[in-house]
Amino acid sequence: MRIHEVRTHASAEPFPLEDHLAWKIAQVAVDPVEVVPEVREMVINRIIDNAAVAVASLLRRPVTTARAQAQAHPRDARGATVFGIPGRYSPEWAAWANGTAVRELDFHDTFLAADYSHPGDNIPPILAVAQSQGSTGEDLIRAITTAYEIHVDLVKGICLHEHKIDHVAHLGPAAAAGLGTLLHLPPEVIYQAIGQALHTTTATRQSRKGEISSWKAFAPAFAGKMAIEAVDRAMRGEGAPAPIWEGEDGVIAWLLSGRDHIYHVPLPEQGEPKRGILETYTKEHSAEYQSQAPIDLARSLKPQVEAAGGITEVDSVVLHTSHHTHHVIGTGANDPQKMDPQASRETLDHSIMYIFAVALQDGVWHHEHSYSRKRATRPDTVELWQKITTVEEPEWTRRYHSEDPSEKAFGARAVITMRSGEVIEGELGVADAHPLGARPFGREQYIEKFRTLAHGILPEAEQDRFLTAAQTLPDLGDLAELNIVLDSATLATAPNIGKGLL
Question: Is the CB of residue 487 less than 8 Å from the CB of residue 135?
Fold first, then answer.
């Protein structure tokens, strides 16, 4: 990897095209380096993972809305498929519907470094375009590999959160780069598409603050849709604001750390394999990634709490954790909504206090039952929930940002004080499903997750068909086989939604 210095340049300052970050990313996208076997296998795992969490969300309201919007844009055989239904649709709208389905339950893969990300959000737009263009399975693998690499590299080098910019601002450029690889576009076109994708997907982080709404699911789908449209315009010869990151009135100067700041962004050298996807990790539990290890920790501590008198005898719980966890999903966020039993599911998903309370009580976590209104308003849960606080501990913050995979951690140390004065402590650095965890996810676990989430929604024959198609991706003749289709009776149970404009 080569570390690139990225800073603001005055308009009058010499700044050749080859030094622009967007151009360097475009060069990575066109590099014909081979995809290494372990990356190839992980791409297939993440396609299965995305489908798993998508099928579990197909009957939820935001996904039903996005699907209805896509259905207003039918296409012929050169269109793309939409999860849950047959037919072909305009690729940017298929990406919108599928991206929303993938993101709705906050249950797919993650990468955390200088910023946050869900690199699996790149798959819906790339798959939609691949289907519409008749691309091969090999083309799709190469494109997803590029998108993951660029997404991971941007997240390592540029923090958006400290400036309250939503993390999908890294997704737009990554998806545009992946589409460039997919379509074998020249670097000049990819460069313009990256600039447009970043320019149109930069928004504030209010979508993840306070009372969190359904837009949290739509936000990455919007970024993917914008990336497709950016590529389309660039292919037609249209340009983008440039230099998009480094310009005098660009993203760094006015939205990030300012004109005097230098960012350090790693990118592969020419001929170096793109391995970024191997640094990412999926979720065993439907909750914000920084709560994955605390859920597992709570489950492990439950027997000790019961032996000490049970939940009703808990006096206080303090979670010692990183700056990010404390300030984003902990009491350091200063969001009263995170302690409110009437809060939205999206808000509860971003409350480590609620999540730890339920996991400690139940010893399990479920993507629906653990968030139900009945569950969130249980008096004993509410009582325990209000006793939980978080504090930042420097060592956890250091480990969060460590570049050493063996010590990088997103967990916490729990200190549970009982009314008797007994103190129960435990800590966990990485989730059980993490590559370095107690039960690392492999192909078997991805398939199990898919079957578990598809149970009762998708017929077993359709599950089998999809899994066969995904696992034979390099030789798959028709990428439409990666769609999943519900039967009409199941689809009819989706919520009724209001009529819109489309």
Answer: no
| Residues 56/84, Cβ–Cβ less than 8 Å | no
Closest CA to 127 of 114, 116, 117, 136: 136
What proportions of the chain, in percent to the nearest 5, are helix, strand and coil? Answer: 55, 10, 35
**How far is residue 368 CA from its own chain's centroid?**
19
Q: Which residue has the tokens 């501990």?
A: 393
pLDDT at 34 over 80: yes
Q: What angle do CA 76, 80, 84 make, to 5 degrees?
A: 110
Question: Domain 16-241+269-279: what homologous superfamily?
Answer: 2-methylcitrate dehydratase PrpD (1.10.4100.10)
pLDDT reported for residue 208: 77
Residues 345, 418 contacting (CB under 8 angstroms): no
Instruction: Give the burial class of 502: count Cβ atoms within 10 A of its Cβ; 0-12 exposed, 13-18 middle, 19 or more buried.
Output: exposed
Q: How many CB atoms lie within 10 A of CB 489?
A: 7
* CATH 3.30.1330.120 domain locations along the chain: 289-428
Which amino acid would we find at residue 429?
A: G
In angstroms, the CA 261 to CA 108 distance is 33
Domain 289-428: CATH superfamily is 2-methylcitrate dehydratase PrpD (3.30.1330.120)
Give whole-number Cα distances, 462 to 117, 402, 465, 486, in Å. 31, 42, 5, 9
> How is residue 411 written in tokens?
């967990």
Residues 161-191: pLDDT tens digits? 999 999 999 999 999 999 999 999 999 999 9
Query: Which amino acid makes up residue 74?
Result: P
Determine the Cα–Cα distance for residues 221 and 153; give it in Å rounded to an integer.
21
Span 471-484, pLDDT tens digits: 999 999 899 999 99
Q: List 496's β-bridge partners, or say none.
A: none
Q: How far apart are CA 3 and CA 351, in angstroms?
A: 35
390 three-state secondary structure:
strand
Give 43-54 as a DSSP string.
Answer: HHHHHHHHHHHH
Q: Distance between CA atoms of 115 and 405, rounded to whole angstroms?
A: 16
Output the average pLDDT for the chain: 96
User: What is the pLDDT confidence band of residue 148, given thresholds at 50, 70 and 90?
Assistant: very high
